[in-house]
Every structure is written in C-alpha cells, then in structure tokens.
C-alpha cells in the first residue's frame, strides 16, 4: 500500500527513500558526507507537499545558511514540478527567529521595527556600556565581553541565568550587571543582537502558552539540516516547537517546565528554563521540573486542545492543512503530531567553538522517543580516492560514532588526492592560479572550483593573484561588500531615517562628513539623551532649541536634525532607492568622496552607486535593511563563472568538482588556537574540519603546504600538517618533487629563482637536517600523538625541505 511512487522518489536508494517516506514520527538521518542527507530533506519536503500532508506554510525547515535555504527552495520547486508558493518558514535559525520576533516583538519589550545590530555595532554599544559604568575599556575590552555575551546567548542565558563563575569572570565580578545594562540599552534602542534572535523567541514561546500553541498547530513538519551544529539555544528553540505539551491544558507549557536540556555539567538546567543558583524558577503552573523528556512520551501523541482555537484566529499566512491531509493520515494521532526530521553527521561538527553541541545529535533518540534512525552509507559525491582519504583521516578521531561509507565512483583513471609543496603563500597562490587556468583551458568551469582556507587571512593572497591573472573569483562568507566603510556609513544614514531611535547609526554619521560637531558636542547630545532616556536624534532636536551648544555646532546640528525630518517625510512618498540617493547628496556624503583625492575614493563612489542599485530589488527600506543585517554570504555576481574562495567553515554542505585546500601546516591547520584552547577536542574539531574540506570535492582534490608563511606579519618556517601524515598512501599522490626545475609542477619560469632556493635547501645536508628537525619538532610538539597510527605517505623522501630547520627566512 502507500502512495504511488512519484518521480522524485526515483533514483533514491532504499534507505534514503525510507527517510523520505517515514513522515510519521521523529526521524534522524545520521550519515557521512555526501550521502544525500540534504537531498533527503529536500525530497521529503516535496513528498509532504505533493501528498498534501501540509501546506508550505506548515513546514518549518532550517538550513545552515541563507544560500542553502534559497537552493533548497529552488530544488523543491523542481521536484514538485511547480513553483513552490512561499515556504515562509524555510530559512536559517536566525532568519526564522527574526520572523517570529517581528510578529511578537512587544512580548520581548521591543517594537516590531527593531533594528538588528551587527558585530561592529554590538561592540560599540558594549564599549559604551562599559564606559558608562565607569570602567576602563582598555582593561576590560568590549570585544572580550561581546564574546562572553555571545557564549551566554548560545546557551539561552539571560543576565539572571549566567552561572556565578561566569559572572565573576569580567570586570571584577560585574559581568552580570554589565550584561543586564547592555540588554537594557538594546531595549531602549529598540534593537537586538544576533543572539537575541534566538533568545527572545525562546522566551516568548516559553512564557506565552497561547503563542506556543499557535506555532504548535501551525507547524506540522519540522526539518533541520546540519543538526550536528546546533547550539543549546537552537536546540531549546527546536524542542519548544517540536514538542507538544504533555498536559491537555495549554498553560502547562508555561515557563517551559516540560522542556529540559541535557548535558549541563553542573547538573542544572540552563536558562531560560531556570532561575539563579541552579534551582528552577517557579513556574506559574507550579509543575515539577524533574520531568525531562526522557520519561515523557512523545508529546505529539496527545491531542492539542489549543489547536482549533489557534486556527480560528490564525494570523496572516496561516492556513489549515489541505483536506487531502486528513484523508491521507486518517487517525487523529498523526494529525496532531509534529513530525521532526533532523539530518546530520557527527564527523562534521565544526562549530564547537561557537557553542554547537554535537551531543544534540547523539541524543536525538532519547529526546524523541519512538524515533526512526536511518543511516546512509553510500556516498554519491566523491571518487574512491577522495572518500578513502577523508575516511582514513577522520578515523584518527576518538570521540565518534563511526560509519561505513562507500562509493561506486571508482575508476583507475581517477586522480588520487594530490599533495603539493610550495615555498611560501605567494608561490602557493601562483601555483593554484596556474592549476586553475590549466583546468579552465581543458574546459572546466570556474564555478566548479573552490579554494577552501582555514583562516580568512589566507584569502588575500589568492584574491591578489586572481586579480592579476584576471581570473574571476567570489568570496563567500568573507569580507563583504556591506562591511566596507562607505557602505556602512551610507547604511547608517538609512537606518536613522528608518528608525530614528537607532543611536549607534546616528553616532556613526553625526559628524561624517565633518560638519564641525566635535566630540564635546556629540557628548552633549549623548548625555542629554541618556539623562532623559530618549534617542539621540530627538535629544539633538531639543538641544538646538536651547542656547546650550555653541552657535556654530548648533547650526550644523539643526541642519542635520531638519534633514532627517525631511527625509523621514519623504520615506512615505519617494521610492526608497531614490530617497537613498537624495540622502547621500543632501547630507554631503557623496561630495565628501568626490572631493577625496585618495586612490580608493573612486571605488568607494562606485560602491555607493552599487548600493543604491541593489536597494531597488527590495520592497521597502526596512526589508532592505533587514536583508543586509541577515546576509551572511557575499554572493557577488552570482551569474559569473568564478572560482569560489571561502573558509572551510563556510563550505559546509557544498560540493565542487575541484577543491584546493591550501595551508596544511602545523599551527595553521590544525590551528594553533584550537590546539592551545581546546587540547585534544580542539584537535579533533580541526580534524573534522579537514574531513569537511576533503569531502567537498567530487573529482579532484589538491592539498598544499608551504615552507614559509607569514602569520600576523612575521615570517615563520613551518612544519607540514600532521593531517598530511594521516592520509593513506593508497589514495594520495605527492606532486612531483622539485628535482628538476621544469618538472616542478610546471608552474612557469617566474618560479625558478625561488625553486632554486628551495632545492638548494633540499638535496644537501641542510635538507637532511631539516628532516631531522622536523622529526624532533614532531615528537616534541606532537607528543600526544603516540598511539595514533601514523601512515607516512612518502613525501619525506621526494620532497622539498619543508623549511623546518630554518629559523628565519625573510
Ligand atoms: P554533506 O554531509 O556534505 O552535507 P549530504 O549528505 O547532505 O552531504 P547531499 O549534498 O545531499 O549530501 O548529496 C551529495 C551529492 O550526491 C549531491 O550531488 C546529490 O545530488 C547526490 N545524490 C544524493 N543522493 C543521490 C542518489 N540517490 N542518486 C544520485 N545522486 C545522489
Ligand atoms: Mg548536506
């Protein structure tokens, strides 16, 4: 029985199909890279839609990036053979969080037009808070505190919830107080930071049973990609949405007593579910906290009495399920069930440093009793060499579930994974560029190639090189267009127009371009605003009515205040991109760059033009501003055939025909910071990152290491990454050694002088010594490796003197 097979199911293997067709009850797909997890999710949505089990608006689907969300939407459209009308709840945790928060902003003490601060603004604000408390912000840097706040918010903590130890760790025990002051400031500014996009919704859902019940009746299906990288706050958020209350009265979910989190070492529940000191905050209902989900049946089995009511007063896009759904499901139990499906790979958990908890995936079965766990073993992405190399590498990690992976992409003609050496990063970039041009000449698209770096500073060299070569490239998730100074200035003007309470934006441009408003004047406005608890723009409007400020700055300030008033009036009447142009003209901002004689000025003016052009694509100024605050990936010229450059972290879930992985050197990859801070688990996370990198490649995979690298401005001789040692000889080739110049990769004459230096260092006692040093350094630095199977891949014999013996190079 069951539905007739549909086109979209064809081509799936048995287990994939089971993951798609098990629409009833919780499902976990736990499988290695390239096994089709994301494809299963996409197909599952198509399946749900085409069986009529739910409307698009009843499906909550979480992806890791905005880009992935867009791609998923497109793919679903293709699968169901028609444009999918609005999947309003398909997006990242943040984009869905902002949506929930806009709908219920008042429940978090905000107005629905709140601003989302980016990191820069956040730091500025924190600095102000630190200074306002009379603390020295040099001794207690805002960045450090911002980092702490992010950490707390990743755990779902508000100021009251942070553990005593944490609270003591900053500013002589004033951490809690500062955190609290920061949250107050955010509220006054009608703003929130990224962490709030999760934390506010959690509190809203937890504290407002009717709101929670509305979402429970709204979302029939919840799907989550990259589940291994959810943090505690995201996990709590999901649990709230995916778990129906056990009790029949909706109020039983007040204070979230049915929702607990695991794994807190202190044995206390993390906030926002608990109060200070580890004891649960007493909930309105007085229900016990001890009832974690372990003992509870899957709450979805219980009918939700709130459902009918919620539907009656359903707001905007909410619609009841298609009639076919009831026919298809029949029994009432499945009708009330919220069916969650998470897919992930514990070996690809690479955001531990940002608070991700791989445990979330490991305990899915406990959290959702009665769940179906599906493992996929066939990798459809990579050749046997790439998969072999990656599997062998990741096997060096201890804390893993372990998986079998196989591929049928096996052919004697397949390239092995290539390991290359270069003298320094410039040469590395040059060689990679050469390789790319050759591939291009053989007919490969640039779109099919990617360079994945461990640290973003590595990008510059490639960007420089590609600009020289005239090779198109795009930086994904990197230094973004919107982060450029002129763009940020322009945006600040727009933000104040859209949201006059946005003090941070106001401060940024109050004297940009210079209009004679010095620090003293700005401080006056600032203090006036603080004293009265009003926005700075409003304060400025009042100050200019008085004699307080000297005539000159007063006149300048009055003009600015008047201008904002005028622009705000225009907001209703003028298309926003036209208004933007007017603002930049009238404020003198455009003129400032026109009069600037520096080399960058023309480029900046072009960027401003591009900014205005890009605004046309948005309905309103607000949606544009929201877009900018949410954009994580810079997709410049999406239509252009271009090589992608990104960090390994940004490469998650993606795949490319050819992948270049530069910088496989100790200290860079594995990264020293991870080793220093994370010890063994830090190293394991680095290794997972290497696994992610290798498994992005479909056909060709090139690894690079250099002998000398400049890190933070200092030249250092380097040691090849231990990860190179961990690759299996059977699947790896070491690129030709530089024994004959012409043969050394054939990268062209310009390399000769360097290759010479390179080789001089090689065949001699110097080289022998370098090897010796390397071995010593190895046992010295990697003492902890004893017991780890080390398989040498032979580059020691053939290759260049890694430079390990050289103290300084340039
Ligand atoms: P990652 O862990 O890297 O996110 P994944 O498990 O999500 O990988 P997908 O990206 O869904 O894997 O799939 C990898 C590749 O294999 C894609 O190109 C996908 O189209 C292809 N693929 C998946 N399943 C099949 C199948 N049954 N037949 C043919 N190709 C498939
Ligand atoms: Mg995937």
TrEMBL record:
Reactions catalysed according to its record: ATP + H2O = ADP + phosphate + H(+); Couples ATP hydrolysis with the unwinding of duplex DNA by translocating in the 3'-5' direction
Occurrences of domain UvrD-like helicase ATP-binding (ranges): 10-383
Organism superkingdom: Bacteria
Biased composition (Basic and acidic residues): 259-268
Biased composition (Polar residues): 248-258
Keyword annotations: ATP-binding, DNA-binding, Helicase, Hydrolase, Isomerase, Nucleotide-binding
Example of a GO MF term: 3'-5' DNA helicase activity
Top-level enzyme category: isomerase
Record domain UvrD-like helicase C-terminal: where: 384-653
One GO term describing the cellular component: cytosol
Its EC number(s): 5.6.2.4
Claim: Cell membrane is one of the keywords in the record: no
Binding site for ATP: 31-38
InterPro entries membership: DExx_box_DNA_helicase_dom_sf (IPR013986), DNA_helicase_UvrD-like_C (IPR014017), DNA_helicase_UvrD/REP (IPR000212), P-loop_NTPase (IPR027417), UvrD-like_ATP-bd (IPR014016)
Gene Ontology biological process terms from the UniProt entry: recombinational repair
Region Disordered: start-end pairs: 247-333, 761-783
Role description: Has both ATPase and helicase activities. Unwinds DNA duplexes with 3' to 5' polarity with respect to the bound strand and initiates unwinding most effectively when a single-stranded region is present. Involved in the post-incision events of nucleotide excision repair and methyl-directed mismatch repair.
Family according to the record: Belongs to the helicase family. UvrD subfamily.
Protein name from the UniProt record: DNA 3'-5' helicase
Species this chain originates from: Oricola cellulosilytica
């Amino acid at each position: 029985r069951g539905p007739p097979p549909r086109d979209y199911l064809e081509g799936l293997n048995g287990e994939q199909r089971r993951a798609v067709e098990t629409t009833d009850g919780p499902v976990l797909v736990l499988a290695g890279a390239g096994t089709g997890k994301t494809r299963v999710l996409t197909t599952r949505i198509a399946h749900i839609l085409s069986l009529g089990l739910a409307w698009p608006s009843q499906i909550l689907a979480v992806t890791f990036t905005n880009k992935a969300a867009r791609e998923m939407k497109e793919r679903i459209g293709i699968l169901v053979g028609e444009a999918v009308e609005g999947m309003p709840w398909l997006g990242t945790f943040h984009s869905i969080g902002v949506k929930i928060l806009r709908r219920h902003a008042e429940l978090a003490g905000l107005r629905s037009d709140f601003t989302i601060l980016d990191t820069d603004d956040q730091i500025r604000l924190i600095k102000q808070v630190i200074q306002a408390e009379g603390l020295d912000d040099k001794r207690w840097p805002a960045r450090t505190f911002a980092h702490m706040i992010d950490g707390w918010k990743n755990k779902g903590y508000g100021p009251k919830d942070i553990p005593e130890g944490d609270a003591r760790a900053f500013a002589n025990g004033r951490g809690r107080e500062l955190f609290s002051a920061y949250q107050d400031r955010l509220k006054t500014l009608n703003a929130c930071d990224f962490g709030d996009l999760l934390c506010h919704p959690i509190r809203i859902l937890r504290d407002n049973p009717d709101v929670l019940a509305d979402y429970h009746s709204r979302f029939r299906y919840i799907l989550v990609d990259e589940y291994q990288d959810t943090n505690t706050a995201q996990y709590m958020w999901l649990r709230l949405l995916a778990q129906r209350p056990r009790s029949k009265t909706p109020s039983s979910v007040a204070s979230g007593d049915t929702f607990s989190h695991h794994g807190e070492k202190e044995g206390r529940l993390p906030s926002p579910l608990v109060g200070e000191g580890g004891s649960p905050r007493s909930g309105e209902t007085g229900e016990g906290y001890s009832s974690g989900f372990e003992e509870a049946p899957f709450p979805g089995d219980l009918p939700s009495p709130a459902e009918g009511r919620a539907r009656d007063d359903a707001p905007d896009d909410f619609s009841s399920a298609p009639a076919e759904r009831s026919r298809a499901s029949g029994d009432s139990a499945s009708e009330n069930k919220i069916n969650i499906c998470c897919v992930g790979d514990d070996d690809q958990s690479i955001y531990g440093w940002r608070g991700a908890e791989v445990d979330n995936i490991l305990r899915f079965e406990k959290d959702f009793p009665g769940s179906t766990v599906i493992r996929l073993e066939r990798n459809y992405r990579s050749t046997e060499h790439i998969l072999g190399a990656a599997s062998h590498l990741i096997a060096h990690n201890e804390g893993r579930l372990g998986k079998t992976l196989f591929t049928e992409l096996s052919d004697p003609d397949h390239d092995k994974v290539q390991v290359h050496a270069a003298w320094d990063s410039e040469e590395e970039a040059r060689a990679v560029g050469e390789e790319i041009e050759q591939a291009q000449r053989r007919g490969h698209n640039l779109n099919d190639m990617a360079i994945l770096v461990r640290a973003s500073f590595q990008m510059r060299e490639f960007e420089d090189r590609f600009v020289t070569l005239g090779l198109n490239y795009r930086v994904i998730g990197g230094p973004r267009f919107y982060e450029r100074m002129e763009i940020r200035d322009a945006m600040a003007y727009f933000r104040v127009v859209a949201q006059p309470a946005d003090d941070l934006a106001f401060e940024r441009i109050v004297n940009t371009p210079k209009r004679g408003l010095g620090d003293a004047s700005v401080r006056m406005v600032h203090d006036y605003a603080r004293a009265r608890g009003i926005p700075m723009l409003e304060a400025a409007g009042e100050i200019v009515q008085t004699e307080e400020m000297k005539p000159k700055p007063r006149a300048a300030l009055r003009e600015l205040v008047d201008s904002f008033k005028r622009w705000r009036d225009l907001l209703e009447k003028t298309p926003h991109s036209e208004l933007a142009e007017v603002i930049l003209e009238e404020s003198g901002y455009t003129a400032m760059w026109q009069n600037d004689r520096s080399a960058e000025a023309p480029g900046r003016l072009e960027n401003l033009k591009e900014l205005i052009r890009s605004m046309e694509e948005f309905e309103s100024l607000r949606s544009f501003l929201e877009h900018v605050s949410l954009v994580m990936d810079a997709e410049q010229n999406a239509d252009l055939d271009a090589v992608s450059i990104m960090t390994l972290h940004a490469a998650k879930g993606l795949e490319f025909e050819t992948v270049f992985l530069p910088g496989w050197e100790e200290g860079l990859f594995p990264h020293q910071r991870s080793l220093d801070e994370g010890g063994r688990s830090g190293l394991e996370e680095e290794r997972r990152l290497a696994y992610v990198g290798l498994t992005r490649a479909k056909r060709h995979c090139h690894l690079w290491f250099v002998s000398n690298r400049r890190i933070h401005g200092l030249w250092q001789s380097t040691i090849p990454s231990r990860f190179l040692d961990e690759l299996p000889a059977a699947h790896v080739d070491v690129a030709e050694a530089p024994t004959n110049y012409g043969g050394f990769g054939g990268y062209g004459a310009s390399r000769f002088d360097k290759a010479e230096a390179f080789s001089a260092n090689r065949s001699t006692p110097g080289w022998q010594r370098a090897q010796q040093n390397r071995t010593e350094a190895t046992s010295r630095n990697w003492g902890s490796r004893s017991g780890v199977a080390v398989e040498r891949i032979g580059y020691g014999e053939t290759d260049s003197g890694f430079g390990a013996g050289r103290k300084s190079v340039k």
